[in-house]
Amino acid sequence: MKRNGIFIATFATVFLLASCGAPKWYSDFDSAKEAAKKQKKDIYLLFSGDDWAETSKPFKENIVLTKDFSKEFGKEYVFANLDFSQTEYAKTNVPENASEEELKSAAEIKKSYEKKELLARYYNVRKWPCAYLVSKDGYVLAYVDFDEKNESTFEEYSAKMKDAGQEALKTKELIEKVEKSSGIEKAQAINELVENTRQEHCFLLKDLIQEFIVLDSQDSTGLLGDYEVRNAYNKSLEAFAQGKDPAEPFEQIAEKSSLSDLQRQEAMYMAAYVLVNLPDIDFERVQQCLEKAYSIKTEGGYSEEILKALETVRKFSAIKENQESKK
Fold first, then answer.
1. How far apart are the C-alpha atoms of 45 and 129, rounded to whole Å?
2. DSSP one-letter string for 76-131
3. pLDDT at 19
4. How many other C-beta atoms can be found within 10 angstroms of the C-beta atom of residue 314?
5. CA triplet 53, 55, 60: central angle to 5 degrees?
6. Which of 39, 189, 298, 320 could form a disulfide with 178 if both were Cys (CB 3.0 to 4.6 A apart)?
7. How far apart (Å, rounded) are the C-alpha atoms in residues 61 and 74?
8. DSSP code per residue over 11-50
């Protein structure tokens, strides 16, 4: 992703918003979620790059910032726009003699950008602009497609919004079912919601996945192991983003009796995988994880892939040891 910064509106955009009497657009997602809860609405979440993505600014000015868009969808949705401005992010590069105020401002911009960058990663943003309909808790309800070649007018995009709204209804029903249930019934409702959510957006359900583990601690659904593994993936992703040990969540669950041998093997295999993706690779630890993964299940499962990975890691370890011995 490009290194950009926080939302910066042009004079024309500000004038357009004021003259149209449009509802508030939130640039902070947490504030948007709070507003959605109070107003009992869903959220239209837009990721944009006005000063570097060619179609971003025209899309906003000609479609979503218009009076027609506000009138058509303002009653259903709270509007949130996370804009990644290169111009604003450039302000984080302060000179050595910068004042305390300049340093503070640069730090705030950087912190805000990093927060938005994480959200873009968690929402799996792959094109700009990119928009989702999301629940008050931030769960993805539907993706609102935008093709700059075909949806260049409000009418065309409005049709896409309405299609997405229809698609969102099933997910909203599943969320409501989760909210109204308790105990093992809630665990089952959570599982239904998770199963009907795209894999790339399941991280956003991390709190519900953790709750499932508590609700079904006795594994009456037979799914506890699956959710322990899901939770480890989520914790590993968070750890990676925070600069912490991303392998630890997998190593911890590999000892749990609620997991099958295949799930325990997957956990140790993934521990090795995330370690290999760190800037400074600890080949000894990677090798230990792979060896443990293989020892759990020597046939079937991931055994064949693990053996191949072990062979590669052992070669790299030997090369590294040889290089260090010559120093």
1. 11
2. TEEEEEEE-BHHHHGGG---TT--HHHHHHHHHHHHHHHHHHHHHHHTT--SSSEE
3. 39
4. 14
5. 105
6. 189
7. 16
8. HHHHHHHHHHTPPPEESSHHHHHHHHHHHT-EEEEEEE-T
Residues 6+ apart with CB under 8 A from 205: 139, 190, 193, 194, 197
- Tell me the sheet residues that pair with 252: none
Of the listed ranges 94-108, 165-179, 220-234, the least confidently predicted one is 94-108
DSSP 272: H
Report how far residue 94's alpha carbon sits from residue 79's, in angstroms, rounded to the nearest whole number.
Answer: 32
213-220 contact pairs (CB < 8 A, 24+): 215/183, 215/184, 215/186, 215/187, 215/190, 216/184, 216/187, 219/258, 220/184
* 3-state SS, residue 311: helix
The pLDDT assigned to 65 comes to 95
Please give, one letter per residue, the 3-state secondary structure of 140-186: EEEEECCCCCCCCCHHHHHHHHHHHHHHHHHHHHHHHHHHHCCHHHH
CA distance 71 to 84: 26
DSSP character at residue 63: I
Residue 141 Cα distances to 43, 132, 173, 178, 202, angstroms:
9, 7, 10, 15, 12
pTM confidence score? 0.84
pLDDT score of 326: 64
C-beta neighbour count of 150 within 10 angstroms = 11
Judged by DSSP in three states, 253 sits in helix
Instruction: Write the DSSP symbol of residue 218.
Output: T
From residue 144, alpha-carbon distances to 8, 80, 131, 163, 184 in Å are 23, 14, 5, 8, 34
Burial profile 188-197: b = 16 or more Cβ within 10 angstroms, e = fewer: bbbbebbeeb
* pLDDT tens digits, one per residue of 18-33: 334 557 999 999 999 9
As a whole number of angstroms, the distance between CA 243 and CA 315 comes to: 28
Could you give the CA distance from residue 247 to residue 243 in angstroms, rounded to a whole number?
Answer: 12
